TrEMBL record:
Transmembrane intervals: 26-47
Annotated organism of origin: Sporofaciens musculi
Residue ranges of every copy of the D-alanyl-D-alanine carboxypeptidase-like core domain listed in the record: 101-228
Sections of the chain in a coiled coil: none
Biological classification of the source: Bacteria, Bacillati, Bacillota, Clostridia, Lachnospirales
Alphabetical list of InterPro entries matching this protein: DD-CPase-like, VanY-like_core_dom, VanY/YodJ_core_dom, Zn_M74/Hedgehog-like
GO molecular function terms noted in the UniProt entry: carboxypeptidase activity
One of the GO BP terms on file: proteolysis
Protein's recorded name: D-alanyl-D-alanine carboxypeptidase family protein
Keywords: Carboxypeptidase, Hydrolase, Membrane, Protease, Transmembrane, Transmembrane helix
A Pfam family it matches: VanY
């Protein structure tokens, strides 16, 4: 009996060991399954989030100026061919010498800059020949420029494309912000002076020729835009246009 019992207990222990091993394998397999399912879930969420982020980026590019410039100081508001002005945008304006109007917030630094530029302009105050524009005025400028190129022999589509390099469509011009001015000097030296000194007063040479691929606008030596002294200084020192500067913020 003792011998048989011992044999029985031996076989029983072997079966127990096998069951323990089998249960251990099942337990490990269960853990692996849970890990795999968790990884798939996390990957799926990350992929979905990434896709949603991509769609959000596209939406931002298509958004209007108010949405695009959330948290941006007013003087760094970006208006170009991709970013338009809301229809209800209504700046507070003040007249400058010559009758043109600008946003009242840039009047002080603008006049200081023009006064300082007199020495390079035969001691005459450079004139602001274009400041704030309404949508209707902007449209008339664009139409006139388009008609000019049609008269020169270009097709209508070609004329509009060329005109767009010089005159923005209504809603896409900085002039409608009231922060930009076109300056007329008695001598070309005044433009050289402005390019080297305007940053001291918070203005930038907005459309240099070497940035046309970025701004989408051909060189305009007369066009200056207020962005504040700090931003203007950094752009001047680093050779950046407004689009480049804002992309680094």
């Amino acid at each position: 009996m003792t011998k048989r019992y011992a044999q029985y207990e031996g076989r029983r222990n072997i079966h127990r060991g096998r069951r323990h091993k089998s249960a251990g394998k099942m337990y490990i397999a269960g853990i692996i399954t849970v890990i795999l399912l968790s990884s798939i879930t996390i990957f799926g969420f990350a992929f979905k989030t990434g896709m949603e982020g991509s769609h959000q980026d596209v939406d931002v590019q298509a958004s209007d100026l108010q949405e695009l410039n959330i948290g941006t100081p007013w003087y760094l508001t970006l208006v170009n061919k991709q970013n338009h002005i809301p229809k209800d945008y209504n700046p507070k304006l003040v007249k400058v010498q010559g009758g043109e109007q600008v946003d009242e917030r840039i009047y002080g630094p603008l006049m200081e800059m023009l006064e300082a530029a007199k020495e390079a302009n035969w001691n005459q105050l450079p004139r602001v020949v274009s400041g704030y524009r309404t949508a209707d005025i902007q449209q008339s400028f664009y139409d006139e420029k388009t008609a000019k190129y049609i008269k020169e022999g270009y097709s209508e589509s070609e004329a509009k494309e060329i005109a767009g390099q010089w005159v923005a469509l209504p809603g896409y011009s900085e002039h409608q912000l009231g922060f930009a001015v076109d300056i007329n000097g008695a001598t070309y030296d005044v433009y050289s002076w402005l390019q080297e000194n305007s940053y001291k007063y918070g203005f930038i040479f907005r459309y240099p020729g070497n940035k046309t691929q970025i701004t989408g606008v051909a060189e305009e030596v007369w066009h200056y835009r207020y962005v504040g002294v700090e931003a203007a200084t950094k752009m001047y020192e680093q050779g950046l246009c407004l689009e480049e500067y804002l992309s680094f913020l």
